[in-house]
Amino acid sequence: MFDAFAQEAGTGTATAPAAEAPETVEQAVEIDPAFALGKIEAWVIGFQKLLPNIVVALVLLALFWGIGWLVGRGFNAWAKRRDRDNLGEVLGSFLKWIIVLFGVLLALTIVIPSLKPGDLVAGLGIGSVAIGFAFKDILQNWLAGLLLLIRQPFEVGDQIIVNGYEGTVEWIETRATIITTYDRRRVIIPNADVYSNAVTVNTAHTMRRSQYDVGIGYGDDVATARRAILAALAETPGVEMDPKSEVLVWELAASTVNLRVRWWTNSERTDVVHTQAAALEAIKTSLDKAGIDMPFDTQVLLFHDQTEELDGVRGRQREGWPKPAKGEPPRPAREIEARRGKADGQPEEA
Hints:
single chain, alpha+beta, three-stranded antiparallel beta sheet, 10 helices, elongated, disordered N terminus
């Protein structure tokens, strides 16, 4: 490059006597000092010719750098006024570097006049494809992060569940979303995973419903239990009065009548957990005062010597131990066996 500008310097410029270039390796080893001095002088002359272009290119590059900085700062200020700080930082930085890259391309065309803008664009296109394949995951995460910031399905400070992780969104970077779990651990999740998987936003609304199943005995009055539970919830701090709490008969289980208790609290995790703990304690105390039983699981075991003479006779055998509406209950099978043994002359077992 310097040689070309040295040749364009024209006649009238004092140059060193021309020296013949070496043709063999031996000649290159025994090179004439005049040849080396001629090459160095040609480079110096070429640099002198390029110096104004280099100065102009540096000034242009500094100008584009300043424009990029102003654009990025302006976009950040615009985003902050709309409470979109995260988006302003990511997109503002992206716009700044796009402007700086454009300035670099223009500066190269000034320093190297033989370099055409079309060649730069073509080279940039081929290079972009190569870079895209080499940094596929990085670009995918960056684009996913940009879409998350633009569409804003959740914000910094929201409490979310994604990929089995639950916590508070701390920041959304160009590569990953950072959340802090409730036990103060930091989880870094790639933006592509966040964007392509289901996300539960627990704090999308100001209130959140909680529920718990309470079992009472079959002999207890459901209405009395409902009044006791609702009274307990009404006195529990953190339980919202509107929407109202409710108690629903949800299941007739093996040994209990299960009541599903529903109430509303603030959607923040700490409010949900502490309010539920206080509500369950109040419900237990209120049911005890009302005399409502909360039974354990009950099981009925039928031993072999408790079977009856009709066991195995379909349509006549008893399920459980209810007394028949008419007639005498079936006799135990052991008595039948004992009488049969006596009739056969066998001694009765003690």
